[in-house]
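Page 42, continued from yesterday. The earlier attempt failed because a stray header line got pasted into the input along with the sequence. Redoing it now with the clean sequence only.
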Amino acid sequence: MSASSGVAKNGAYVFEGRKVTLPVIVRKARAAAVTYVVDAGAARALIPSPGLEIVEVGPRKTLFTLGVINYQDNDLGDYNEVSMAFYVRERSAMRGLPYLGAWLDFVRGRLSTYIHRLPVDQSFTCAAGRGIWGFPKTVERIEFLTSGDFATCHLEMDGSPVLSLEAPASGVRTLSDNAMHTYSMIDGVLHRTAFRSGADGVGTTRGGSSLALGAHPVADELRSLGLPKPALFSVWMGNMRGRFERAEPV
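This time it went through. Structure tokens are written below.
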């Protein structure tokens, strides 16, 4: 679906008979984000745009974040989502110090992402995400559970298990709202979406997660990155908020 699909005459979007206006606001969500150091060559093979390059944090090494989100109060509904994202820059962008500059930008929340896959478990948010931003959303079976101080997410596609992720689910810190960008492809054209995100009830754990992969081809993609392996760190956001703007061509 192209970004123009579903645009009403007043500039809003309509999907499945429901109107969406921008910016899209996330008022409350719970999320775990688990970051791994993975093979940069394998990551490049999964990025379709020649206008982007993988950010290396070491020789032939880059970062990959697996995010699981339970949206509770969101303009696109209440649903579960799994995000598979790489850290990228535009090829024309200025570069800092090799490796060290990338780590500093990551810690400061300045690195942009390219979302490789974005499964969700409801059709409306899938249609809106694809139609407005070109996000690679698909409707799949996702189970998101919390028990004690841990969150567990199970993703199933085409009737086959893809992954099961367990991550810490506790924290007391606040993450101030931060401006970021993510990239997507719309009708073969690279687009950039600006968004802001922050959270309360934040906890950070070194390692701290457990990942199991199934027999699905998407699980094989994750294996090509060297997963499962120990995580670099895990972040829990007990009350996440966000604001997504319109996708703009690069």
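Notes: The chain has four helices and 16 strands.
Reminder to self: strip header lines before submitting.
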